[in-house]
Amino acid sequence: MNTLICYFVAAVTSLASMNGVDEKKLTYGIRQITEDMIQEKYQLCPDGKPVEVVILSIEAPTQGLRIGPFEFKSKKTIVKSKVVIDGKEYFGTGIAKTNVAATLLQLQDDNLPFERTEFSIAVKKSLEDALD
User: Fold this and answer.
1) Sorting pLDDT into bands at 50, 70 and 90, what band is 115?
2) Beta carbons within 8 Å of 3's beta carbon, 6+ residues apart
3) CA atoms of 67 and 70, how far apart (whole Å)
4) Model confidence over 29-59: pLDDT tens digits?
């Protein structure tokens, strides 16, 4: 008889913070992404083996180039994570990029806004890197 191995996301913590984003919303979103990814390969059940996720760092460096009245900016969102599954630690890094081309009049703020969509993409890539 085959026994079914299933998992549940026991804990999601973040050692990094994002300005303007509540810690509970951040960890809830990461929990949802993690559960979706685990469900692609395994079963989820409340009494399964625990999976723990730790967001180690969130970085968002911006680089820019100005040529006359034109400005080009590129922002990377880099998320580093650790996933503990079956007692083993797996590390991942995910990167999402945003590029903007504008004239000086169009780009009023020198900083590109932190996009939640880009963060979500970077988190997913980081978890995929850790779980693959």
Assistant:
1) low
2) none
3) 5
4) 899 999 999 898 889 998 899 999 999 998 8
Tokens of 101: 């081309």
Q: Token pair of 18, please?
A: 């994002």
Report CA-CA distances (Å) from 104 to 60, 66, 100, 110: 22, 9, 12, 10
Q: What distance in Å separates the CA atoms of residue 28 and residue 26, rounded to the nearest whole number?
A: 6
Among the four given CATH numbers 3.30.1490, 3.30.160, 3.40.462, 1.10.3470, the one describing domain 6-131: 3.30.160
What ranges do the domains of the chain cover? 6-131
Max Cα distance, the chain (Å): 72
Cβ 50 vs Cβ 8: under 8 Å: yes
The pTM for the full model equals: 0.77
